[in-house]
Design goal:
alpha+beta; Beta-Lactamase; 6 strands; 38% helix
């Protein structure tokens, strides 16, 4: 747990250095997804879905092409957004309604992005490894989302 806490402390310090002088959410989320994809082990996708007109729409990401639109309440991303709660899924094949964009994915973590009591979207990370994510990841990635909320101007 201490190793993961240290990993996220360093990762989020580096993210802050990348985004603290920028307010454009596309640029900041693009850099964030690249940082996560290149620093985290055993992942095959890292990116964002942004809520537009009641539907989560694909945003900046790293990995294979992905589903473009996800309805609220559908899949892990839609569930996280609807419930406003981080979803840590040990085995995506046991998650009812899982949307398989990449058949290689086995586990997933989705952190909702909420600002001023409004759902902005979600941070979504997939792994080809079962049980890849845990509470330490949830806490570290919640700090990542908090940094994005601090610096991003979320409107288009």
């Amino acid at each position: 747990m201490t190793d993961k806490k240290n990993f996220y402390r360093v990762l989020n310090e580096d993210l802050k250095a990348l985004i603290e002088d920028e307010t454009d959410w596309v640029a900041n989320c693009a850099n964030c997804s690249a940082l996560l994809f290149n620093r985290m082990t055993d992942i095959n996708w890292a990116g964002f879905y942004i809520l537009k007109e009641g539907v989560l729409v694909l945003g900046p990401f790293q990995g294979k092409p992905a589903c473009v639109r996800i309805p609220m309440g559908k899949g892990v991303c839609g569930t996280a957004a609807l419930k406003r709660e981080t979803q840590v899924v040990e085995d995506v094949h046991r998650f009812e309604g899982h949307i398989a964009c990449d058949e290689a994915s086995r586990s997933e973590i989705v952190v909702p992005i909420i600002r001023n009591n409004r759902v902005i979207g979600v941070l979504d990370i997939d792994s080809p490894v079962l049980k890849r994510f845990d509470q330490a990841d949830a806490e570290g990635l919640s700090d990542t989302v908090a940094l994005l909320n601090r610096y991003n101007r979320w409107s288009d």
